[in-house]
């Protein structure tokens, strides 16, 4: 059972979370609890580190020793794990805290963004044998240098899934501030329905499309180790959404969900001489400038010229423009056309694999509403389109209805 | 070099402390820095623990698992040690943080008030060899159970002295918010003089008499391992007071300092039948009630009756009275007379050992000012008296002059 920062933001909430743990213990489970830092604590520590490494008025580089960053910020989860153990004890649930180095959660030496390498469970298992439930500090481990490591932002989800895999847990419950995964954003479509189950692959597509319910890495890990992952709310008692193997999902919809990303931009390099290496000449400088390119479409003209279109988030347009203008002599494009008034709409569903014509149904439905599609990309279980931003709500609502996703 | 909570209360102060470290490094020293938690952090964590173990409205016992208390509160020093290492690095001083379990500072298993058992210094020494100065989280260690332990309040001084002893350090500098040890409280006697040196034994008497400069345990440890201990201010650059072996003090005063304790109370049990076991009958119930008894005087009368007088701090008078009244049938005293308008004045000096008549000079000086002495106790290097509280300032000033302690 993993509780995020808002679920352990103060002692009242820690008690609320502990009551959920007690309920599972009373059902006969050996429970491992994974906790984040109390909401706000990690940010405070990160600010401390930046201030320490780069004092006001200094011309410091802003670089700092990631090993010390890890030592400082890991203190947040340390505090919560001790407090959760105390609250559980107060509720007559035998429990003890475990820091990353005590379990041990063995990680790579990439301080600040370490990856979990191994979790020997002998220590935990021995204490389970004594009836002691475990409260593990999330987000942290121990590196090969014997020092505290952290997994990067959102790493507590990863800690929880990795522990569930290592322990062979029946389930990994991620308690958060939403009560599950919905067919689409309920703020846009009020008939959005909470899914009982969703396949790992679908969740991965939805996670990377901006449904900020679960961290992508934790879903990948769950998929690899077949950890059944439940997303549910800390603040009510309803069942959540189970993220699981597709074989466990009996009534599979063709499309499980509609995702959207509001602030997208489309950049087109017009009339680029089409020659080998042109893509590298364009996307090399963009990568060097730190621009995250999402969709890429290339149209080859009859005149030996090509138009190259790609999308990114609006925040990165200025950076992209500067990088492309600096590389203009190399790329030799005729013009750069930027449309920063677009959004991305995606339909996601495992069922697409076995159902033809899903993309076509999407395009028809949008066309009937007079919505023009600007760019299309597809994967095995996803179709994404760029459209004008002003049609975003209409597109989501139309597709939600088209694919029969409404609730009661 | 040890920096207390007020000396590392924010990043500005940590930078100020780090500049002092850099100065010693530039002088060619291998420096081990010991840091406390930022002022206020430990109290915050202690409150969290109490709230966790005994929620509002519960009828909890207030008892909690000291191992979890240790895990929670040790986070404070963890944060400061990482920040101090980062600030030192920013000043081009190669440094790294060490948690108690990393050094390791091995302690007993008495969580919450552990004692240091051993500090293997191989790890630290190896890093010194690589030019890395050490920043050690104070107040914490690792118990035989492999869990984080803490040394109890003020334990960072003890961490510093123990590390200095283990490392064979030339000196242990305790940076605090006072600039040294004074002949008496400068708020009472403006001619109080900062001592250049003071013997361990004297410091111990002064520490336990309420001069809150150094924790008693750390002085005992320094005395045992002959660690030269300097007390000095974080906030200026003047030399402080060296606490050292008496042999190192060439010009030894007969009396080194005058201590006072304002809020004392004198309790007298009048006409107690004098029989074997009467002291136990009196002080047993007081100890059970948690009353700290300081001075004890017994006067035996001619009639087989004795008067038993003792002192305690005024805060504990109510508790003492209740305990004695409950035990009245057992003790069979005639009356309980309480004077809670007294204070304690002590003169402390190694030189008393070899100089007769020191106590007599004290009594005469007080008598000349018309100050009546109510209780006297003496040790080899100390004479303490209880007097009316209204004479406290006069007594301190008189004795300060009598024993030639004035500065310029």
Automatic annotation (TrEMBL), chains A, B:
Transmembrane segments: none annotated. GO terms for molecular function: aspartate kinase activity; ATP binding. CDD domains: AAK_AKii-LysC-BS, ACT_AK-LysC-DapG-like_2, ACT_AKii-LysC-BS-like_1. Belongs to the aspartokinase family. InterPro entries: AceGlu_kinase-like_sf, ACT-like_dom_sf, ACT_Aspartokinase, ACT_dom, AKii-LysC-BS, Asp/Glu/Uridylate_kinase, Asp_kin_monofn, Asp_kinase. It is an enzyme of class 2 (transferase). This is Aspartokinase. GO terms for cellular component: cytosol. It holds the Pfam family ACT. Pathway: Amino-acid biosynthesis; L-methionine biosynthesis via de novo pathway; L-homoserine from L-aspartate: step 1/3; Amino-acid biosynthesis; L-lysine biosynthesis via DAP pathway; (S)-tetrahydrodipicolinate from L-aspartate: step 1/4; Amino-acid biosynthesis; L-threonine biosynthesis; L-threonine from L-aspartate: step 1/5. It catalyses: L-aspartate + ATP = 4-phospho-L-aspartate + ADP. The keyword Protein biosynthesis does not apply.
